[in-house]
Amino acid sequence: MGCFIVEGKRKLNGSIRVSGNKNEALPVIAASLLCSDSIEICNLPDIGDVRCMLNISENLGAVVSPLLNGSVSIDAGKINSSILPIELSSKIRASILFASSLLVRTGKATICQPGGDTIGRRRLDSHFLVFKALGAKLHVEYKKNLDVTQETIYIIDAPHGLTGADIYLDEASVTATENAIIAASGAKGKTVISNAASEPHVQGLCNFLGKLGVKIEGTGSNVLTIYGSETFTRCKHQIGSDYIEAGSFIGLAAATGSDLLITGVDPQHLRMILFQFERIGVSVETDSANKAVHVPDHQSLKIRKDLGGVIPRIEDSPWPGFPTDLMSILLVTATQSEGTCLIHEKMFESRLFFTDKLITMGAQIVLCDPHRAVIVGPSQLYGSTISSPDIRAGMALLIAACTAQGKSLINNIEQIDRGYEQIDIRLNRLGASIKRINDRRGKICQSGANL
Q1: C-alpha–C-alpha distance, residues 423 and 413, integer Å
Q2: Residue 149 CB partners (closer than 8 Å, separation 6+)
Q3: Which helix or strand (DSSP H or E) is residue 287 part of?
Q4: Residue of 117, 316, 325, 424 marked active site
Q5: In the annotation, is 117 catalytic?
Q6: Among 77, 156, 384, 406, which lies 20 to 30 A Cα-Cα from 318?
Q7: Which has more pLDDT, 76 or 151?
Q8: Is 115 exposed, middle or buried (0-12, 13-18, 19+ CB in 10 A)?
């Protein structure tokens, strides 16, 4: 376990490049197990979740090269297990994506309840409905542990392979859509997936599978037609840029009054993100030719009322709407804007619970219910001892600490490390003051130095 000590009230300046898209990298790693030949993946972020997925791949029998400079090769010629390791898969939600590739390769997948962020209930029903539609059978077992807790084990069988089907997802779940796409890629015949998620990372997965030799129609829409393949071709794939990280840096720059150039991002992926930031007084200059956005240090930071002087409501929705992963970031940025707005997080009932930590720092927030919060700004934030509950809330709290007067101690930074590569080192290069405490050595180290 580790923590950050953050000295706030420092303006940042300079250029920062976004990492590869975490949410594309994870399903691509899982889908790599479809191919019995070597796959090379580039522009991978070196983060906890990526390393966990690579470790699971190795545990299942794949040969994985060291992750160096964002590149890795995966050779899944010999998959010798259909059982996901409980210790690893219980750490990350995306571990369930291996179920589809294992069903194709081995005809069976045994998984436990996947882990991930504690932001509310994340049902698995859609995944199992997909597998059932493709011809698999589900059996559930309950295993009692020595500490009297109970582990749920899901055994999915498809001994005769999967068969294409007409699937209508009961919700536009990103992970369930990805599982359906991977499974359909190895199923016999044609599969049609309706009400599919269409986020850029889902499109990236489709593009990767296309390189493997799978024919997919409708990429980028909510209706996908996939023609299953019996063989998969080795390829090299570049992970797209992380627009969620870009949005996080926009919020950081605005909240701290900093001048930042964010590079390596597709501004087309930021259209709704920039629109919602504009509603709280953040203006961004885009440069599509150079794949960059510039956040000037002089911002109005004044919340724009809706027509008729109505308090604006900012809500998340599936692509191309405002992403739920940026609700925490926008919320903390709004604490620095003049005026009042309502944040409506419709997808997860626990995502907004981190606001109690912002309130202890001085933010004027009324948590109406698990899904809605009223923010009144601007608020002077003050340093505090806080803890990161999940990846995005952790980044939001880091932004709050950089904005606050005085020092803050952020615990449980492993959550931040799961989604943001070397965030302390990268921000310190821009002028931030973030020290990492590494408990394993029991001493404070200046970020960027050898631990």
Answers
A1: 10
A2: none
A3: strand 285-287
A4: 117
A5: yes
A6: 156
A7: 76
A8: middle
Residues 6+ apart with CB under 8 A from 351: 119, 120, 324, 327, 328, 345, 390, 392, 393
pLDDT value of residue 442: 41
Percent of the chain at pLDDT exceeding 90 = 85
Cα–Cα distance for residue pair 215/157, rounded to 1 Å: 25
Tokens for 96? 């369930």
pLDDT tens by residue, 114-172: 765 454 455 788 999 999 999 999 998 887 765 555 678 889 999 999 999 999 999 99
**φ/ψ of residue 263, rounded to 5:** -115, 165
Every domain of the chain and the residues it spans: 2-18+241-446, 22-238
Please tell me the distance from the alpha carbon of residue 77 to that of residue 168, in angstroms, as a whole number.
33
Pick the CATH number of 22-238 from 3.40.50.300, 3.40.50.720, 3.65.10.10, 3.20.20.370: 3.65.10.10
pTM of the predicted structure, to 2 decimals: 0.91
- Architecture of the domain made up of 2-18+241-446: Alpha-beta prism (3.65)
Element (H, E) at 64: strand 63-64
Tokens standing for residue 48: 């906890």
* Residue 6 identity (one-letter amino acid): V
Topology match between the domains 2-18+241-446 and 22-238: yes
Burial class (CB in 10 A: 0-12, 13-18, 19+), 382: middle
Contact 362, 356 (CB under 8 A): no
